[in-house]
Design a protein that fits this description.
Length: 72
């Protein structure tokens, strides 16, 4: 599978993963690693907020505001 964004620029770049939201192929240049917030509820107590597992997202899903990139 090739990177969709590179294909639009007339380049053939192999994808290193697929977007966790839409499934589009992304290369290492176009993919962003994100860690979405996870809320865990335990009965009547307050929710604990943690960080989820790392995921790769495409630029379109990243700008849609679903998640924020992991700081380098």
């Amino acid at each position: 599978m090739n990177c969709y964004d590179c294909q639009q620029l007339s380049a053939q770049t192999p994808a290193v993963g697929t977007c966790a939201h839409c499934g589009m192929g992304v290369c290492s240049r176009h993919g962003e690693v994100v860690r979405p917030a996870v809320r865990r509820f335990s009965g009547m107590t307050a929710a604990r907020v943690g960080r989820g597992t790392p995921r790769i997202v495409c630029p379109a899903c990243l700008t849609a505001g679903q998640t924020a990139p992991v700081p380098a």
